[in-house]
Design goal:
The protein has 637 residues and is an alpha+beta fold. Helices cover 34% and strands 22% of the residues. The protein is globular and about 75 Å long. The N terminus is likely disordered.
């Protein structure tokens, strides 16, 4: 069967990694490579079995294109699969979200598609004109799908395809985009960076290309990019949850990090958490891809705290690019400077603030460890709920008068004062290890002139102290939050927009997800806060932690500009003034030489197209200029 072939291919890939790989770090107990491979194979099989078992061959009204592909791949429920293929395409819909599952059907199900099936499929590609979309993940899904669809019929002429181009022309255009996206990402960082939601929309097309592209060079690049994207997650992964600052998140996911696609992938890729399926896992399970052992170890190795720095970029800016923007082949973008502090008990991560990604940006977040994060709101974050046509016209082609309305038609909470995600040009964030300082200078007349910080229902022992600090405990972590200005407590979604069902899926079950959580809302234009986080194990008691924080040197001002000077629990003196570069122990933070990746597990310089993945004595080197992967051992470690 096709799936058995994929499992054999998976085993072969793992064995090749063993041959090129390294022994485990001294003193560390990891599974043997054969044990790891077997466990991964078993999870892949669990994905397939889950789909087969949930398929009701008598119900021709239920089952999506991905379910059809998996059934075809193992030769199960073939009559149902053929009938559903036709029903699900009456009419075809979904644009690039139609294209890639259709390609999955064509390749994973190839051995069990008959002549009539192929005639039907080819007619769909001739007559249905899918929209390319307008985001980075849309375009990658579109072009990866177009490439593979045309690869199946390489000699077909323009009359066979919806866009009037031949298969050869489509493949050339698609490959040009895929290579350009790889080059830009590995040189300047991803635009739709570190999204716990949209990581899946990158894994899907890359896994398809790795699994079924016939061009070995392109297939190799796709494999390398899978490693790249998964490494980007692994270094900010805490028990299967994607920590740090994110380009795009939906409200339900900012409230409960364990709901995201990243957590589902962590189960399959790293064996973390409970079984959770998604379409990306279905494609991975059948593609033959196996994460290298080094990625597995990085994802799980949280014995020691570390700092991770990364350079990303904004989405391409159409207008209002700003003084920090730079050009890449005629397209304007701006750097995103990320800092993440990974601790065995928590992850605190941030970007510098500003309008870095339209609509769904999360500038900073704290996530603490839970033994089982399912159903938990184990997070804390803040934002200034900015809504303005300036942002919309920066990233979208619509005009000033209509762009906000157009955005709110799909992202229904964008123009709401109680939204949970979004960037602001009036926000400046600075982080040093487990301390974060956020400063705000909001102009008079701004649409939503306040800042909001989420305190979830899973925080315990919340105390508003006479010192001005707000203390709380999240799992194994103590938290201290010092607002610059007074505020009031409001329920999450205090307007009732999402609880009332606005946006359909967007607000599904939001009443339950948000119940018991509150926002600390401060309606002062010149504002800010300090966050100090520490493992509870560092203190004999909660009272000792509170006393230690109260004793820390602190100077705050709000005029003429918000500013803070604070000595944290580690003894570092931090200074930040809105509009200026922050400093640590008197030394200004230099953003000019910010690395693409810098941490104990990853190293890359801007514009290098070169990533070194590190763990113990092993280095996995991804050289995108040469399209080469090498694995080496260091005798110095």
């Amino acid at each position: 069967m096709k799936h058995n072939k994929c499992l054999l291919r998976t085993l072969a890939a793992c064995c090749s990694l063993v041959a090129a790989g390294a022994p485990l770090a001294a003193g560390t107990s990891w599974p043997t490579e054969s044990e790891r491979v077997l466990a991964y194979q078993e999870r892949c099989q669990e994905v397939v079995d889950f789909i087969i078992n949930r398929t009701d061959p008598e119900n021709l009204e239920r089952g999506g294109l991905f379910d059809i592909a998996v059934n075809l791949s193992v030769g199960k429920n073939l009559d149902w699969a053929r009938a559903r293929l036709r029903a699900a395409n009456d009419p075809p819909r979904g644009n690039m979200f139609w294209m890639h599952p259709m390609v999955f059907i064509m390749y994973a199900g190839k051995d069990n598609l008959n002549a009539e099936d192929w005639e039907f499929i080819r007619e769909l590609w001739r007559t249905y004109f899918p929209y390319r979309g307008d985001t980075e993940n849309h375009w990658l899904m579109y072009y990866a799908s177009l490439y593979l669809a045309c690869q199946m019929f390489p000699d077909s002429g323009p009359e066979a395809w919806y866009n009037g181009k031949s298969a050869a022309e489509n493949m050339a255009e698609a490959e040009e985009y895929i290579r350009d996206w790889i080059n830009v990402t590995t040189a300047y960082g991803q635009g739709e960076y570190d999204s716990p939601n949209y990581i899946e929309e990158y894994i899907r097309p890359l896994a398809l290309l790795y699994g079924w592209a016939e061009d070995e060079e392109l297939r190799q690049l796709s494999r390398m990019m899978l490693d790249y994207v998964i490494l980007d997650f692994a270094v900010e992964n805490l028990g299967g949850l994607y920590g740090g600052a994110h380009s795009r998140l939906y409200p339900r996911y900012v409230l409960q990090p364990a709901l995201t696609a990243a957590t589902r992938h962590a189960w399959l890729l790293f064996g973390q958490g409970k079984f959770q399926n998604n379409a990306g896992n279905m494609i991975l399970a059948l593609s033959g891809y196996v994460p290298p052992a080094i990625l597995h170890r990085i994802a799980l190795d949280r014995d020691e705290p570390y700092v991770q720095r990364e350079l990303k970029r904004t989405r391409w800016r159409i207008r209002n690019a700003g003084p920090d923007a730079f050009e890449v082949d005629g397209r304007m973008t701006t750097p995103v400077y990320k800092v993440t502090y990974m601790h065995p008990d928590f992850v605190l991560g941030s970007s510098q603030g500003g309008l870095l990604q339209p609509i769904q940006q999360q500038t900073w977040s704290l996530i603490w460890r839970e033994d089982d994060p399912t159903g938990k709101s184990n997070t804390l974050f803040g934002l200034q709920p900015y809504s303005n046509p300036f942002e919309g016209t920066m990233y979208f082609g619509a005009d000033w008068d209509t762009v906000t309305d157009l955005i709110a038609r799909s992202t229904v909470d964008y123009d709401s004062p109680d939204k949970l995600e979004g960037g602001s040009p009036y926000e400046q964030v600075f982080q040093h290890r487990s301390t974060l300082i956020a400063l705000y200078d909001i102009p008079e007349g701004s649409r939503f002139p306040h800042i909001s910080t989420l305190f979830t229902r899973d925080l315990e022992n919340r105390v508003e102290d006479d010192s001005g600090w707000i203390f709380a405990k999240g799992g194994p972590v103590y938290i201290a939050y010092r607002p610059f200005q007074p505020g009031e407590w409001k329920p999450v979604d205090w307007t009732g927009l999402l609880k009332g069902g606005a946006g359909g899926w967007f607000s599904t079950n939001f009443e339950e997800l948000s119940r018991g959580s509150e926002m600390y809302v401060s309606a002062y234009l010149k504002n800010g806060y300090i966050l100090e986080v520490a493992p509870a194990s560092d203190f004999d008691s909660y009272e000792e932690f509170k006393h230690a924080v109260r004793s820390l040197p602190l100077e705050i001002r709000t005029t003429p500009l918000p500013a803070a000077t604070f000595t944290n629990l580690d003894g570092a003196r931090l200074h930040a003034v809105y509009g200026d570069s922050p400093s640590i122990d008197g030394k200004a933070v230099d953003f000019s030489d910010w690395p693409l990746f810098d941490g104990p597990f990853s190293q890359a310089e801007p514009e290098s197209r070169d990533l070194k993945i590190l763990h113990g004595s092993q280095t996995l080197h991804l050289d995108f200029e040469a399209n080469r992967v090498t694995s080496t051992l260091s005798t110095d470690k």
